[in-house]
Amino acid sequence: MIKEDINFKEAGRFEETRFEKIHNVIFDSSKEASLLVAQEIANLIQRKEELNEPCVLGLATGSSPIKVYEELVRMHKEEGLSFKNVVTFNLDEYYPMDKDNIQSYFYFMHEHLFNHVDIKAENINIPDGKVSAEELRQYCIDYDMKINSYGGLDFQLLGIGRTGHIGFNEPGSHVNSATRSITLDHITRVDAAPAFLGVDNVPRKAITMGIGTVKNAKRIVLLAWGISKADIVKETIEGEISSQVPATYLQEHNNTTFVLDTEASSELTRVKTPWLVKSCLWTDELKLKAVVWLSGLTNKPILKLTDKDYNDNGMSGLLAEEGTAYHLNIKMFNTLQHTITGWPGGKPNADDTYRPERSEPAKKRIIIFSPHPDDDVISMGGTFDRLVEQGHEVHIAYQTSGNIAVSNDEALKFAEVSTVLNSASTESDSIIDFLKNKSKNDIDSVAVRKLKGLIRRSESLGATRYMGVPDENVHFLDLPFYETGTVKKGNLTDADIDIMCNLIDKVKPHQIYAAGDLADPHGTHKVCLDSLFEALKRLKSNSYMDDCWVWLYRGAWHEWETYEIEMAVPMSPDQVLKKRYAIFYHQSQKDGVMFQGDDSREFWVRAEDRNRATAKKYNDLGLAEYAAIEAFKRYHF
Ligand code: F6R
């Protein structure tokens, strides 16, 4: 069995529990995991080559396999891995879809893999999005027959959609389904919307290999990264087999491995509530996690939990370690109590033994990094306000221009105002001309991007002035990785890191705030965070960095779990309003934004709902009742 090829047990975290019906391995990072998967594929290709046999690979597209393909390309270029004996069958293609459309899976596969390796063109099979409706049925039958003519797939690489689809086998698909055309689920189209610049542009149909075709593969590896996959991964691995979650059919396949990163695994029972399935090593973090969970389960504030509550819910081991519920409850209650502070920059002249921040220096230099030009106020507007009010030197650094999220109509409005004010401007004339003639898939011209970026700059300055920050402390970094004009961004380079390092080195901050949010739909927050981590690594040896503490907030999409929070900054009802008004300055992101995702609430509503929910969670645990709370976790570098 190929599974034994790669020692996933040693490489990742693998444990079988009674809840799990599919072999799965968890890795700290998707990169590390992707390298191992690529290695498994490379081994298979080489073994088949030695046997003088074709290696038949089923391939997937989407964000999940990108690093696997990157590594295969690297192995081809640097280690001589040859694809001469490789035959590939892709899972799916939108329908209808032209091959040269940049959204096509045909384009994707060539861009990420085929153009960079020595595979023979005639060995590449991707469902043809241009087959006529009359020929489609026969075309699909022939696709399966061709796979069978090679003796089936040796290896199938899969991603998983939030609907539980594999390939484009949406809920309702039959276990024996063959390659066919299918209507895409709304959630799938919403997930694809950013790439197509809006859900209305996403095709409604696709051609997909069937479940039956996939299940015939000799070996299957499914990749899932990120928090947005956590729920469906749990349902697939732990739930009952059901056509409503087609990926559950993989429970019946005897050589499947799910390769997960920490976030995608976070809802699995063995990860989320390990005390229910095994004896635990009780770290402080795990204790808090368990007690917060128990309080939610029993609907009781922490101080009312009893020995029986602990014993009935898999935590007798913890109780034995701690003595009694009484002692454990007080300890956990105090831990949470100590996270609350109205002094996020530290309280001057106060004993800071049990406070999240140091009291000294009383006036701190602070940089708030905001990936897009609005995350600062959306995610930490209340804390931002306190930091300014409490006299710290606050700098705001907008990491990207955010230009792709400004609509054409909004840009046209500004360009037209600009021509009226400045009749000699040929630049605004050309912008107006471009915008009026722009078709759906055109990438904005550099001038249009500049205008869109400027719109977001002025909105940001409106907000920072309202918050009381002098303009010279507002920094627009326009990190180059973002400036592709499309949703797909470039890779981080030294140019990005240098910009980050220069600012940090100039300000020499005592505190840095940054978005630790890894769940934004386009990945920009993650890249921005990586740029900070890399900058911190490079600057680490400077003595001022010894005094620099980093606090991570989460963006508009997701909040820290209560047990993860290390600083909770409460807000009064008036501060909630002030934060709302600051968010309103970002007019281009109001009243329906370009990249709405599947949450139709405006950003200010999301922010208020979330801050209110965090306050309620604290209150339900038995802590004081606040109107709203913003939450932070410290990052130790
Ligand atoms: C792609 C495919 C889909 C994706 C799934 C996850 O060929 O068949 O099933 O694997 O939608 O997409 P990402 O990886 O973008 O999250």
Mean pLDDT: 93
The termini sit apart by 41 Å
By CATH, the topology of the largest domain is Rossmann fold
How many helices?
A: 21
Q: Strand portion, in percent?
A: 5-15%
CATH class of the largest domain: Alpha Beta
- Radius of gyration (CA) equals 27 Å
- What is the second-level CATH architecture of the largest domain? 3-Layer(aba) Sandwich
Brief sketch in words of this structure:
The protein has 637 residues and is an alpha/beta fold. It has 21 helices and 17 strands. It has three domains: 20-270, Rossmann fold (3-Layer(aba) Sandwich), CATH 3.40.50; 273-337, no CATH class; 365-405 and 443-635, Rossmann fold (3-Layer(aba) Sandwich), CATH 3.40.50.10320.
Properties at a glance:
Rossmann fold, single chain, 7-stranded mixed beta sheet, 637 residues, binds fructose -6-phosphate, alpha/beta
How would you characterize the overall build of this protein?
This protein is an alpha/beta fold. The chain folds into 3 domains: 20-270, Rossmann fold (3-Layer(aba) Sandwich); 273-337, no CATH class; 365-405 and 443-635, Rossmann fold (3-Layer(aba) Sandwich). Helices cover 40% and strands 13% of the residues. The chain contains 21 helices and 17 strands. The chain has helices spanning 8-11, 30-50, 66-79, 105-112, 133-149, 186-192, 211-215, 230-238, 269-272, 284-298, 307-312, 316-322, 325-337, 375-389, 408-421, 426-437, 446-466, 494-507, 524-539, 573-584, 603-620; strands spanning 24-27, 55-59, 86-90, 92-95, 124-125, 155-158, 180-183, 205-208, 220-224, 256-261, 365-370, 393-398, 474-476, 511-515, 549-553, 567-571, 628-635. The strands form 3 sheets. The protein has a 7-stranded parallel β-sheet, with helices on both faces. Helix 15 (408-421) packs across helix 17. The longest helix has 21 residues, at 30-50. It is globular. It starts with 7 loop residues before the first helix and ends with a strand. The model has no long low-confidence stretch (mean pLDDT 93). The structure holds fructose -6-phosphate (F6R). Residues 60-64, 91-92, 159-161, 165-168 line the site of fructose -6-phosphate.
